[in-house]
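Provenance and format

Records in this collection were gathered into a single text stream. Each protein contributes a sequence line and a token line. The two records reproduced below are adjacent in the stream.
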Amino acid sequence: MRKLGMKDLLVIVLGAFINLFVWHDRNPVGVAFFCAAYALIPGKMLLAMAALFGMAYALPMTSFIRYTGLITTVMAMAAVLKKWRPAGLTPVVMCGLMVLTMVTAGVGYGLAYGEGWQQHMLDTLPESALELAAAFVCYWLFAGMIAWMKGRRPVGRRNMPMKEEAMITKNQLHAFSESFRKLSQSFEVDVSPRGALNDQEMQDIFNAVTEQVCKDCSRCSYCWENVFEDSCESAYEILKLCSERVNMKKKDLPERFRQRCVRSDNFLAEARRMMGLAQTNLSWQNRLAESRLALAGQFGEVADVIGDFSKQISDEPVRKGAPEKQAVHRLAAQKINVRRIAASDRSNGRKCVYIEAKTPKNIEKTAQEAADIIGRVYGRRYLPRPGTASVIGHRWEMLSFEEDVRYRTIIGDARMVRMGEAVSGDSFTVMHMESGQTVLSLSDGMGSGEKAEKESNRIIGLLEQLLSTGFNRQSAIRLIHSVVLSGSEPHTYSTLDLATLDLFNGKCELIKMGAAASFIKNGPDVKKITSEALPPGVLPEPENEVKTAEMVHGDMLVMMSDGVLMGLGQDDDRNEEKMAEFLKSCQAVNPQELANAILNHAMAACHYEAEDDMTVLVCGLYRKPKL
């Protein structure tokens, strides 16, 4: 058994402190820290006690019991697995145990909820997915931090070349991704909601009703022996009518049945009762099927997140040529000692440089200073990648740098509320991602006023949370679609207009679901982008066709809600062409000026009486100056 050092004790104390911070009675950060530390330090029982101490202070009793069970399960599974794996628990294996335990615990506690557990699981699905994604991301952040505090790299990776290390990590993450994908597929097997009772269920109801009503009737032998076919036909017709009509009356029964049956009132009452029970059971079966499909979808989304994370580990050949050697010499001249250096290209052509470096004692150098030196070698501006230490320490550590984006964006917006309303039913957001992308999204709620605002805000809020957590656009849209599809108000929809602009190469990708046309303006040239896809939640599967456009310096992307186009006139087929003609002639030179001009043009066309909410969102793309 390894002895506890001061750094181990510091990690344990930090574990108790981190577990004080909870989110809506959920504790993904604390669980992630516990699991990361459990894989990397001795004193595991003391670590568990510290984590539980923090949780006991911050969580209500029900949540504390849940997370106590979760931590206990992780420890038990780790103990069993350790006997099977002589190499011990690696951080990757521990991450898999954490994710598996959190998913299993979520399902188990959902089933234990009692009456209405299906609706409870559906209602908490978004928070559970976000909790799992947050725990996964935090785990790797904490694992790296603890390994750094311990002055070593994670288990089994100390002397491994960068390329081999990256490939092993990538393969392990890919294996976890495939495991979750198979789990998702197993939940989808033989599961599909039904719209009506099947033949066997109708036969069972028929037998139950006739047995209950007819067995001791004086005319039983006559009905079921002399006129058997007509009795069967009449009974099935009554059952079918009961399934179609909620309050079926005696007058609705077939005429020949009313004349022959002396217990028609009893038969009708029993048929209505049995059909009601069967319809209720069918409804519950459908809700259970929807819950299984939704859970399968969440497993699939987790697989996508892990898969996307593994894809970020570059497959490109690692270069160690003349520029890299020159960078090492220039860094050394500035008192930054480099033991290893490598460079690679990302999928969009963006270059990355990785170094293992340290500085002499009594000399402080920042990562930005190193980035500036690397940039001068390659002739382009470089920046430290997110997660890289801001100060280069006196011990060997890994630092990564990436080529700065080539473009910047300027945003303009203009809005008008429908006349007679206090708030707009349109919502939008602009997100600047660490990946070097700008994401613009616009949602138009059904109708107007507070109800439309609430629905569109929900769509935009979910999108922001999912994208910032690490979900890609397709996964985020599928999750939003499932949330809307399983909501308590299935007939309330909001459009979704999503644009992603890569600031490195100018590539613009748009996903439009029920949204109005968008336009790309370059001086007098205007390109129209449309889609026939329906809003999220309308169809069982989302329609999210991706439209692609190449933007250059000076281009402006124009997004708008349908109220802007409606303001141009009642001829819907011509409104898009009218807007394109206006954009061609408009002399606006910046995004805000263009947004104001579009809104003023639409308001003038409708005589300043907006019949729907109007929102205009404009994004201008401009090249950054070279180094």
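Adjacent record:
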Amino acid sequence: MLRRCNCCRRRRPGMASIMLGYGSRRCCVCPVDPFRDHDPAETPASMRLWVGAALLALLTFAGAALGQPIVPQQPPIAVEQLDDPGFFEVRSAVAQLRDGVYYLNAVIDYRLSTEAIDALHSGVPLGIRLDVEIVDPRRWWFDDDDVALQQSYQVDYHALSERYTVLNVNSGDQASFGSLFAALQYLGRVERLPLIDTAVLADDRGYYVRIRTSLDQEQFPGPLRLLAFWRRDWSIASDWYRWPLRSE
């Protein structure tokens, strides 16, 4: 006599069933009673765990064979990279009197724009200008610029040696650096720059000094000079930094 097991759904000979102590018979290969409907929830927890583990291993093996992950990955989120406009800022400045001559000491922060850095790495030299003015304030008229000085610098990048050079156009002095950061740090330290002799200053005048720095567009090649006129990234300049020449 063949009976269908409610668990494995296969017909088994009745004599192949196992007689349990409480009188019910089960399929010899299935631990479930074949004479009553089988509730899947009654399947032993160990069997459910084994089946789940086997299914997970099968999926993992299939994914490894195909070279693709089982869980679909989300497409990468595109992050827009904003260009740095750059900035120049005079952090501090002072005029020190030594042996009848005023000397300028200043600390300046230079941060080039993204476009300026790209141009520098493409072989375009960048000119930087430092303007210094000694102003005689007038009570009833416009202030008069008694002294106007200009220091010009040129920053170059040499692709072969991967080094940056800073040239003082006024003096001809040149320094070389392994990084752009170091070159700009050097450029931002102004020390003992002669300003003016006290012999040419009137004793009764309240002179003040002001300085600012900017990208020197006059040193750009022709096409780049035209572009710099319209683009903010090429018109980087600090505000005027002002202080009295003589201390009270």
